[in-house]
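dumping the sequnces here before i forget
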Amino acid sequence: MQERVKAKAIELLESGVCDRVLGWKAGEFFYDVTPAVFTSREEIEKEFVFGPFCGANMSKYLIAESRKEGKKVGAFLKPCDTYSFQQLQKEHRIWRENVYAVGVQCEGMCDIEALKAAGIKGILGAEGSGDTLTVHTLYGDKSVERKAVLAERCACCKSKKLLGCDEIVGEQGEELESARFEQVAKLEAMTPDERFAFWRGELSRCIRCNACRNVCPACSCEKCVFDNPNSGIENKAASNSFEENLFHIIRAFHVAGRCTDCGECSRVCPQHIPLHLLNRKFIKDINELYGEYQAGADMDTRPPLMNFQMDDPEPSVVHERGSDQ
Amino acid sequence: MQVKEEFKPTIVAFCCNWCSYAGADLSGTNRLQYPANVKIIRIPCSCRLNPMFILRAFQRGADGVILCGCHPGDCHYTTGNYYARRRMTLLFSMLDYLGIERERTRVEWVSAAEGAKFAATMNDFVETVTKLGENKRLEDLRCKSE
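..and the predicted 3d for all of it:
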């Protein structure tokens, strides 16, 4: 797959369709693959990678790239990226005519923490396509089931469908039945005190690095409410404070109805806070209260929070829900 | 010796200018009693209520927050309260998900003619929040004045 993607990138540059290509570049370690703009064949041959750790969602970078002068920007998008790509077009953030979008089929991205947890020591690299990965270690090569080391978001993948691309590398996929709301349901079934303890445990680890905000395709406002230095809450608070909760509630609320559930927030969190559980709660509520809605799945439906029905449930449904809890 | 005072919750009531604020006024002119610890903040429409306002009120020491607006269908701006209804439903559900007492937040539709309903709502809400006690889960010590 990597060779096909690389060949396509070179083709885009040399045929003159694009003058720059957005793709993945290996970082300091093989698993910290970063997004990068490539402008020459040499760079692509040397640095372009596409493998089991290319989790970065490319759509956000297209906001700035598509507004630059010059030829089109070529972009490689995985199925989740294409949902964000469509959502951003819907919000008039990406200038579609300046983008040449190439859909790349994805086999599920892996999590380095899961690899380490599987008891593999001295990991130097990992590659492979299909169901088994080859892991290079100090003690020789080992093979691992891809399923066992998938990132959480990929283990419950919602769709392999590539939307709105000019071209596709690999095969077009289908929407999948996913169990992504299972963990949310589990939390909902707890008592309020248990839930509070759970979220205190998770959110109090937050160091307010803003990585979740910076990587989120939906969080691309030109001015963010959390950049206000006069708010008194712009940085890390004492551990007994509500401040991290406020940040995460408001962040999740600002992307409610627009979040495509790409899972980037949880991937980049240095403290491993399961932030996707907040976004999924909103998605689950929207699905249950206002009808099924997948952000970015189409170009014409109105987002649920910019829409209403005369017979929407009253906010008291929350109070009535399982009063024994 | 200081005598321990009875707990009096601080309640912030966001009232829409066109219905509920006038409703509060009516309950006053009708001499209907409601507790003095309800602080009313007038907003142009219930959909002006940014979720951040609610969370900030809690951070700064409110024990309960209530939003009052025109009845659905009667909004001065035609549809504002329909949007507010969706937002508040989702926000309250999220607060509940984070383990925060769900009785601390409420939405009530009060028209300009419902002075009695306004007073009754406030009495009931203050009673509920008094039972819950002080808001500890949502406060932020840096933001509290005192």
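Residues 204 and 239 of chain A are 6 Å apart (CA to CA).
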